[in-house]
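Exam review. A common question shows you a sequence with its structure tokens and asks you to describe the fold in words. Practice with the pair below. Do the first one on your own.
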Amino acid sequence: MDASTILSRLQFAFTVSFHYLFPQLTMGLALLILILKTLYLLRKDERYNTAGHFWARIFAITFVMGVVTGIPLEFQFGTNWSRFSVYAGDIIAQTLAMEGAFAFFLESAFLGIFLFGEHVFGQKMHWFSAFMVWLGTWVSGAFIIASNAWM
């Protein structure tokens, strides 16, 4: 292998190693936030709502970092792994596109409602937005696992 191939694959390895931290963290945090929000609605204990807001801020930061590191990965498949992309691109492209179109937009839209719309939409919609964020993170994980199954 020539030096440019080795360097591009090292770049990909660094990006994927850094990105790998964020999807699992957001999947777990989304479930935790949904549980805290559910407990708040059932028990009317403000501590659960406060904890949910705390973890939502951390979720938002990890979500942004996951996006910042995840989008370059899709481009690096085509540039750093071109022979693989030619071979399995029809499958990989569909699952990655569905992850972006369905799961990512679902997560990001309802994350905005969850972070900024509690007082505007009320507690039931706030819970529903937490549920949709959780659903989006887990559907996103399913699409990524489907993509990884072809690697």
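Now try the second one, then compare your answer with the model answer below.
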Amino acid sequence: MYKRILVAIDSSTTAQKALDESIRMAHALGADLCIAYAADEASLVQHGMGLGSYIDIEKVKGEIRLAGNRLLEQAVAKAVAVGCKAEHMLLESANRRIRRRYH
């Protein structure tokens, strides 16, 4: 039926429920699982002129990406622990462009 399942996550309870259901489906169907996280940096870029004098915007962007990657790594580990083939993808949305980084 399904060969590949994509699930987008964040740190919310609802996203974790979606992840759990996606893992169950992928395991039951023998499908590959791709877990995505959107690192939304747009608000930093849009308001960067004012924020730049108070915070290091590049450091904050790095922290956003780091937190997203940690969440993705935990999600992949959860899927792999039950026998799913899983990969993750970090989507960055700075400047309204999405750049994909597959891992």
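Model answer, second protein: The chain has four helices and four strands. The chain has a mean pLDDT of 85. Full marks require stating both points clearly.
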